[in-house]
């Protein structure tokens, strides 16, 4: 005979209903989809060709033909923002992937082993945290050469200790639970338990941290490419566009306004999405907001 | 308590030593010979070799590390390859810009964020809370260098109230110098204030749900007194943690802002040194910043004990 306990089941449908009732989630999700769609569409279509310089059209203000105006080479700003979105998303996403791919196994391993292994890992974490991330990212890209790939590595490295810390803290909270004890009694190894029981229970935490790091990655990439250390021309990037705009602020303020807005909207969308997910999947966090 | 402090101190020192090894090792494996860079491409191999000997570049690795680390301890950082002046002079000169900038930004962000956090927490769920947290949400998303560009456009280009960039130096008088640090400080402070306001609010709300707050209210203490004396004090730990992180971030985060405003600060120095391969400047400044981060974190750890008496009695 099996014992049945009635637990109000979180069905996919009930989560979905909660999601659509959550303003932060809906807004954040809509913005994120919009930005990603913009980046995808830019592969097949942009209003204008961003590689073609039309000097006759240079520094034109926003108009029906060029919604966001044109830059000093006569390129359409909207088209450049669309193509730039690809770069921002790719860099931030892969950097999050690096952080998760290395940080999560390290963090869960440290929590599973405890003792000296755990202590050593946390000290290495402290060490990485002692280096101001932006400064180190600038050093890495300046020394190994500017470009999107090095920007990804530079940002990704500093995501590792963040995910390691979150995964470890989450896993430490899961380990004392009864179902882990049951799994151990059933003879499962620490690795098996980590993968089958711990990871699913910290997935929400990691997802929320993922959106935060994604947003931070976009800001960091913009900073690096503003300094000329990110994606190189002719590939448009949001930070680079802001650098080009700075000396032309007096004649063409739109060159600075719109790429900046693109960054703000994207980061805002991701942060809202993260807040929303935390709200929906973790009712405890709801109390605090 | 003493054991706790000693452990924190030991960890901080160990981290510092490890960090110095990492910095030294990273710059050691870099391509590019400083002696060759200083002499230019036309120098003969003999000349380069002579200079390498003079600069001590041919000594064994461990000796060079010990020499460098010993120099750091006695604040003798060596001479800059490109400026041909002692690095410590450069650092002192640049710190006179960066340190006030970071401090003003930190003060601004605290002055804005803590009251906003208090206000929001005490009006949770009402219009005032929703609006201020909406603004904070927006503030977190704004890249500070873009905000800086917008500030320059409005206050320097349009209204002509402050200079768009540059720094007259403290010798030109306190006011002109402060005036040129004003926009950069505001640009740095806004995103920080947004984060801090959110942390303050959520820390306060968590504490306002505690039983002792209800007790304080039940014994007839006015809401205001409960908020300031009981809630804010207990909410200080997360707020202090974020403040410490932000100070560290501000010191290094000035790199981009100093570039936007053409300020001759530490960030601009290290950025130029990186691009010019002036490695001795890079390693010195990076070590200084790392030491600052570690020191600030240590101070934050210690201040927990001051803020929260419960931690003092705990072993």
Quick structural summary:
Chain A is an all-alpha fold and 289 residues long. Helices cover 72% and strands 0% of the residues of chain A. Chain A has a single domain (14-44, 71-281), classed as MetI-like (MetI-like fold), CATH 1.10.3720.
**Unreliable sequence segments of chain A:** 285-289
Largest chain-chain contact? A-B, 41 and 46 residues
Listing every helix as H and every strand as E from the N terminus to the C terminus, the arrangement of chain B reads HHHHHHHHHHHHH
Overall tally of structural domains of chain A: 1
Helix content of chain B: over 70%
Structural class of the helices, strands and pairings of chain B?
Answer: mainly alpha
Structure class of chain A: mainly alpha
CATH level 4 superfamily of chain A? MetI-like
The name CATH uses for the topology of chain A is MetI-like fold
Domain tally of chain B: 1
What is the name of the CATH topology of chain B? Answer: MetI-like fold
- Second CATH tier, the architecture of chain A: Orthogonal Bundle
Largest pleated sheet of chain A = none
Order of helices and strands of chain A: HHHHHHHHHHH
Kindly state the mean pLDDT of chain A as a whole number?
86
Report the CATH architecture of chain B. Answer: Orthogonal Bundle
* Fraction in beta strands of chain A: under 5%
Query: How many runs of DSSP E, i.e. beta strands of chain B?
Result: 0
